[in-house]
Amino acid sequence: MRLYNTLKRRKEEFTPAHNNDVNMYVCGITAYDLCHIGHARSSVVFDVLYRYLKHEGYDVNFIRNFTDIDDKIIKRANEVGKEASEIAEKFIGEFYVDMDRLNIERPSVEPKCTEHIPEMIALTQRLIDKGHAYATPSGDVYFKVRSFEGYGKLSGRNIDELESGARIAPGEEKEDPLDFALWKAAKPGEPFWESPWGKGRPGWHLECSAMSEKYADLPLDIHGGGQDLAFPHHENEVAQSEAATGKPFANYWVHNGFVQINSEKMSKSLGNFFTIRDILAKFLPETLRYFLLTMHYRSPLDFSFDALEEAEKGLKRIYSALNQIDEELARDKWKKSPFPEELVKELDDLEKHFAEAMADDLNTAGALGHVFSAIRLAGRVAEDKNLRKSEGGRDLFARIKADMADWASVLGIFERKPAEFLLELRDSRAARAGIDPAKVRELLDARAQARKDKDFARSDAIRDELAAMQVEVHDTPQGATWDVL
Ligand SMILES: [Zn+2]
Ligand SMILES: [Zn+2]
Hints:
By secondary structure, this protein is α/β, with parallel strands linked by helices. The chain has helices at residues 37-55, 71-80, 84-101, 117-129, 159-165, 204-215, 230-245, 276-280, 285-293, 305-329, 341-359, 364-383, 391-411, 418-432, 437-452, 456-468; strands spanning 2-5, 10-13, 21-26, 59-64, 133-135, 141-143, 180-185, 200-202, 220-226, 250-256, 259-261, 264-265, 301-303, 471-476, 479-484. Strand 1 (2-5) and strand 2 form a beta hairpin. It is elongated, with a radius of gyration of 28 Å. InterPro entries: Cys-tRNA-ligase, Cys-tRNA-synt_Ia_DALR, Cys-tRNA/MSH_ligase, CysS_C, Rossmann-like_a/b/a_fold, tRNA-synt_1_cat_dom, tRNAsynth_Ia_anticodon-bd. It is an enzyme of class 6 (ligase).
């Protein structure tokens, strides 16, 4: 596959360092609050990359950390009068709830910062020994940025320009404003660990370097994260790891784009801030996951509830088509027919195009376009009175169904039983429209009775009443079903 490598600023053919083994590290959450839609995007993007690499036959060691000690966690803990560890534990639990709902597979390893303090102290000591870091009288340890020649190469920053914008804050004992903390001396009331430099705790950037080295044979094949992490976090990881090991830290750097809300930057102060919970209170998790895959992962993604509603329609079309294929395949007699050569050729091409889209820098938006082409192909078979009942039609339906299942396993969407999902989707839409399904059922029963009694005026009146509630009725041989208009 070809992957866009931030380090090289171009797409490159992806080749793992060790045969078929892929070491992939993605920066995880800082556990101090509920996850927002930006976290959802990053999680879904790297979940699809993980699934795709496995689908292509790679043996993937996927490492995703938890930052469970940090300024933000300590601040939150002080606000609510709890221990930092309690806050971290609570929000790691909430994170899993959201991730499970979004159908995110668990990584191979999920290391926590606080469980790797000795590794971080050892890495800091190595950097001091090599002249890349120094301890201050008050017990902080800083990385000496100018001692690392390649600083700025990942994010494309120039060190002199960075220098001109940097200041040393009052009370800091840095030698150079560019230097960043590897280890922070404990302030009163903060959690701390013993170290050669006194009581303190690790800086944020250090953990990813220490845990990458512990759980993978460096260089990492892929290091990922949101675009907002490229600088300073990832730049500092590169400096720490490469200065300590003398080896490249990661061969491919993959960054997903921002999420914007109605074309504006998302922020708590603008009041346009959505947690995953806010969204899943109104929409099914799969709708959100599908929506996140409708844009290329590097493009900015513009979130709005209108856009989510559009995505919901797309997902409904996919499941409705899968449902129809199931219904067609339930036929027990099939007629002999000539081989539908042209349609089979079309499907061959679609399979190829889907694979090409995914191999081209994980182009899920393009891949979804081919999913819709496959659905339209199934629709054309279903509309052809002869073909749909023939063995050729059966084979096409079966193959489209198998393709869709294969694609679903890579994208992590439309994996559910279609009939079951469509009912859930209907109830979700009904809830948003303020429709009470029990009331609808009651009216449908009354309508069935009226029809039995041949009271057509009454049955029509009930139908009108349902229409006024935004409910449409479908009469089927098994009885009436309903949907939200
Ligand atoms: Zn990181
Ligand atoms: Zn496949």
